[in-house]
Amino acid sequence: MGRYKELAEAMRHGKKAILVHSNADTDAIGSAYGLYRCFPECTICACGGVDYVANVVADKLKIPMTYEYDPSDYDLTVVVDTSSPELLSVSVPDGSIVIDHHIPTGKWEGMRVFCDSHSVSCCEIVAEIIRETEAKLDREIGLALLGGMLTDSGHFQFSNSDTLRHFAEIMDESGVAMDEAISATHADIRMSERTAVLKTMERVKFERVGDMIVASAVGSSFEASACRAITSAGADVVFVGTQRDDFFRISARSTQEMARRGINLGEALENIGSEIECDGGGHIGAAGISGIGDVEAVLGMCVSRTMDSFRRIKEDMGCGPEL
After folding, report:
1. pTM for the complete prediction?
2. Which of 184, 211, 238 is the C-terminal boundary of a domain?
């Protein structure tokens, strides 16, 4: 039995809770909604809330969610788009199913883990699971899955040929046009986000090796948006952090060119997280790290490791070591 068929069989019976990570993004909500629509007796549990764009998508598609979770109320718990248990605001029982696409962290002990780190989005995996059922990918399911694929691929900036094929197949099956998929994830930029990003950009520091620039900054909120803005301004790799009392959070982004040269942010932040006992990881071009600690110190580690990688890349290109 194939792994997707095995997953589909496991979800056919009993009451199921579908959990998403805290501050769930569109890929998480789209994945959860796809499973909710195609398997019986499912409840989407977003105990740690959802982000702004995911909330806009959920409102447009009228996706039902609860913000409470009691494992005793369900026969099976399914966690989607979550690389480690630290990203949940609740604990899940042994034997739960984890469906994910991030670089494996090895932290899901006692769980049935189905991870395909080659998939750009979790929605692609969910689409394959759904195809093992008799369910039809209707318009609403298609919009949810396509939205997750669009946002997690950076509107295809970090996609591969498989993502493009999956996207086209879902468009055909669900009857969703490209402009409709893009419109589903459109969210007006709030004034609070605009001002927070501009204030963060005032604090940007940067270093360079050859033609490669790494930038960092401490902001107040909207770290991912600030990363995108600083990348657009010319940085190749960006780290933006925030501090709340003893807790810090850092978002990281890189350009596709840096990914081609060998920069893997998910791997780098997972390694740093292991060293300082914090939760780090993600994708090649987009990752994060959070935990108890000093954000300035962790940003310094991130920049230092990136500079080391830049120097290795420069040497491999035959330019000699940085003086």
Report:
1. 0.82
2. 184
